[in-house]
Design brief:
The complex is a heterodimer of chains A (about 110) and B (about 110). By secondary structure, chain A is mainly β. In chain A, about 0% of the residues lie in helices and about 55% in strands. Chain A has strands at about 5, 10-15, 20, 25, 30-40, 45-50, 55-60, 65-70, 75-80, 85-95, 105, 110-114. In chain A, strand 10 (about 85-95) and strand 11 form a beta hairpin. Classes of the chains: A mainly beta (about 110), B mainly beta (about 110).
Chain lengths: ~110, ~110
């Protein structure tokens, strides 16, 4: 079975500081990993995804994530936080043996302090 | 092309009434998903369709909830005898058939049960 754990339901960072949002997954087969962002009063949109190939994935708005198989992690980072990054972030996993089923984490709310 | 659309955007109903929520996926997307998002919480999987069939109904909270999809297109989520705990944003997403493909989310329907 697949599952996703996001450590820290709330994260606060100062503007300009490093953003690190944690995601760990469990999967018995190679996973496909996704980060979605939900800005206030908006729908979810894809930030980035890992399927195969390079383990460091770059997404929109300066975010990136690294797939680490040995740690079963897919943490999201951004070198310098901007006020506009304040949002809810969701990690999700799917795989070849889940059909089209996706499993989402419970989300991390990012607050950026000016 | 058009994204995923949902209607109505907001629905206020009285306890005990039935409601129908509609989702129009992106044309050509064979997979369709329904999620529930309670205030301040993560995504709760409800049901997913592959074409017109629903291989996974495990997330439906009770027998008051049902969903159907016709013509590999529009889907309706029906909640009978609504309860106050059904108040939430109901999100619909669609994707291409392959599990590595991202889900595209609609804006959601905010349901309030008085």
């Amino acid at each position: 079975a697949q599952s996703v754990t996001q450590l820290g339901s709330h994260v606060s960072v100062s503007e300009g500081a490093l953003v690190l949002l944690r995601c760990n997954y469990s999967s018995s087969v190679p996973p496909y990993l996704f980060w979605y962002v939900q800005y206030p009063n908006q729908g979810l949109q894809l930030l980035l995804k890992y399927t195969t190939g390079a383990t460091l994935v770059k997404g929109i708005n300066g975010f990136e994530a690294e797939f680490k198989k040995s740690e079963t992690s897919f943490h999201l980072t951004k070198p310098s936080a901007h006020m506009s990054d304040a949002a809810e972030y969701f990690c999700a996993v799917s795989s070849s043996n889940t059909g089209n089923q996706f499993y989402f984490g419970t989300g991390t709310s990012l607050t950026v302090i000016p | 092309g058009a994204g995923v659309s949902q209607s109505p955007s907001n629905k206020v109903t009285e306890k005990g009434k039935d409601v129908e929520l509609r989702c129009d996926p992106i044309s050509g997307h064979t997979a369709l998903y329904w999620y529930r998002q309670r205030l301040g919480q993560g995504l709760e999987f409800l049901i997913y369709f592959q074409g017109n069939s629903a291989p996974d109904k495990s997330g439906l909270p009770s027998d008051r909830f049902s969903a159907e999809r016709t013509g590999e297109s529009v889907s309706t989520l029906t909640i009978q005898r609504t309860q106050q705990e059904d108040s939430a944003v109901y999100l619909c997403a669609s994707s291409l058939e392959q599990y590595a493909n991202e889900q595209f989310f609609g804006p959601g329907t905010r349901l309030t049960v008085l």
